[in-house]
Amino acid sequence: MSKKVKLTIHPKFQIGQIDPRLFSGYLEPMGNLINPSLYDPAHPTANAAGFRQDYIDVLKQSGLPAVRLPGGNFVSGWDWKDSIGPKEQRRKHLDLAWHQYYSNDVGHDEYLQWAEQSNFEPLYTINLGTGDINDAIYITEYTNHEGGTYWSDLRRKNGHEKPYGVKMWYLGNEVDGPWQVGSWERDPRGYGIRANEVSKAMKWVDGSIETAACVSCSPCLNHYPDWDRQALEQCYESVDYISLHHYQNVRPDHPTWMLGSAIYFEDYINTEIALCDYIQTKCRSPKKMMLSFDEYGVIPHPQAEKLYYGSGPHNIYRLFQDLSYRPYITGGFTFTGERFHHGELPAALCSASVIMTFLRHADRVKIGCMTGGLGALISCDKEHFWHSASYYTFSSFIKYAKGVSLRVGVDCDTFDIPGFAANDHDQYADRQGIPYIDAAAAYDELNGTVNLFVINRYADEDKTAEIDCTGFEGYRLVEHLQMHTDDLNDYNTWEEEKLNMKVNPETTFENGVVKTNLKAYSWNVFRFAK
Fold first, then answer.
1. Which residues 6+ apart lie within 8 Å of 511 measured at CB?
2. Which position among 174, 185, 210, 272 bears the catalytic label?
3. Which has the least CB within 10 A, 66, 244, 365, 484?
4. 507 pLDDT exceeds 90?
């Protein structure tokens, strides 16, 4: 017999303060992600810098707090100095990461001015692949120093009188990945020493900044997590965050298993927190390391037909390094907007489940940059903007996940996920006992609000649920917002929006208890106010 669903929230079940940057985006100059989506000098709304003003206006309305830029694999071979000054004098380069010609029309200043115009915080990644310590010093000086030096005066000459004041700096990108230009894959201690010295030097230029060191960019890599330990032991005292990335492959043939994939993010976070705390004790340090999960995504992938099990070093090389067959192209590859599992709701719920995992670790995970975050908030073509299903899940967090994260008691049935291998690299062990109901909550005591986020992972079964809120005396239910569809192939266009949030009028609230119906495969936000 199926167990009745019961959830419990209480103001005493606090996890930690929610950093607004937990709901941020990520940008890298791949294909059409920059041109023509946000940069198009020929567009009717283009401003003086060539950015689409209509795109900026929509982005400002979204409330997006921050974006990590300008990469990504791209940045490990990019010389920022070639991207400043008059555009006609800038050097065009081969982008080894994505095998494209990069014109540098959008350069260091353009990225940061676009951030200013769009009202979000830039989270900047520097090149520690082909770049050196002087590059790190000079870019900090150019960006953040008031004036009176060669680099800061050059910024003023280039048209930006005041410092940009970038606060968050990432010390390289996925530096342990064999696919990375200038990879530190075989020298974790060397990277740790470099990160330590670079972080020190950058903070000597500007003592107000924070830095993040890379750890293993995939829990599937052979050297994980020992690479992380060796690197972090060298730079623990100098940096403020570790930078995590993960792209989880999921089988698209079972919707419930797809949504359960967030459990692998949970494993990754728990391992890194334990590793950081071990090194904190080893260093006899009072500092508690924070986490930045600044690239993530969930990708549908079928079970591989042929595998060389064990994901050994040779297989990693074969997968990621033998790329000589790829031709260089102008403009890069194009993202065609093909639908996740032929529809948008599974993608939206997968990403939401990952963000809820971050919320449940809000005491340590302070930054989260969704790789498709800009696309989630702004679906566009040359003429139109519209909202995808992911807009409604992602914007729910931006609007309502404020204050402190609360631990949610969940009592429901569970399911298992069988082992799965997408390729020689991405292989996942089976997992048992995953709750069908996924939940997280935010409590803003100052403003008198509580917001509960719930996903029903049942693919084809509505569930009656009770939510015990009796600990929040004097609070009322404002509304129950819900998004679901009977057809998982549904997606939104600018002509028709099939997927959106609607108020569930049948949800009741009496004596501190909510009674509701959670639609199969649905996104739910319960809003309470004092």
1. 470
2. 174
3. 484
4. yes
What structural domains and CATH numbers belong to the chain?
5-406 (3.20.20.80)
- In angstroms and rounded to an integer, the radius of gyration of the C-alpha atoms of the chain is 23
As to burial, measured by CB atoms within 10 angstroms (0-12 exposed, 13-18 middle, 19+ buried), residue 272 is buried
Burial of 462 (0-12, 13-18, 19+ CB in 10 A): middle
Lowest mean pLDDT among 119-128, 322-331, 413-422: 322-331
Q: Which pLDDT score, from 0 to 100, does residue 30 have?
A: 85
**Mean pLDDT estimate for the chain:** 92
Number of H helices, E strands in the chain: 12, 29
Please report the beta strands in 218-328, taking only residues with DSSP state E, as ranges in sequence order: 241-250, 290-300
Q: Which two tokens stand for residue 53?
A: 């003003």
Residue with the two structure tokens 């520690």:
128
- Cross-strand pairs, 427: 421
Q: Which residue(s) pair with 17 in the sheet? A: 404
The pTM of the full predicted model, rounded to 2 decimals, is 0.95
Amino acid at site 483:
M
Place of tokens 């960006």: 143
Q: Which residues contact 307 (CB under 8 A, 6 or more apart)?
A: 421, 423, 424, 427
Token couple for 444:
């803003």
Taking the C-alpha atoms of residue 208 and residue 202, their distance in angstroms, rounded to an integer, is: 10
Please identify which of the residues 28, 110, 121, 295 carries the catalytic annotation: 295
Written as six digits, the tokens of 289 are 């390391």
Closest residue by Cα to residue 435 from 96, 6, 1, 54 = 6
Q: How far apart are CA 213 and CA 470, in angstroms?
A: 43
CA nearest 26: which of 496, 449, 474, 376? 376
Give the integer Cα–Cα distance in Å for 212 and 291.
Answer: 8
Which residue, 215, 192, 211, is CA-closest to 201? 211
Does residue 257 sit in helix, strand or coil? helix
Asked about 174 being catalytic, the answer comes back as yes
C-alpha span between 18 and 361 (Å, rounded): 9
pLDDT band at 423 (very low <50, low <70, confident <90, very high): confident
Evaluate if residue 150 carries a pLDDT over 50.
Answer: yes
Q: Active site includes 295?
A: yes
Angle between helices 108-118 and 133-144 (to 10 degrees): 40
DSSP for residue 39: B
| DSSP state for residue 32 in the 8-state scheme | G
Q: What percent of the chain has pLDDT over 70?
A: 94
Interval 345-352 mean pLDDT: 96
Residue with tokens 């410092």: 163
CB 185 within 8 A of CB 222: no
Pick the more confident residue, 307 or 152.
152
Per-residue model confidence as pLDDT tens digits over 234-265:
999 999 999 999 999 988 888 999 999 999 99
**What are 43-59's pLDDT values in tens digits?**
999 999 999 999 999 99
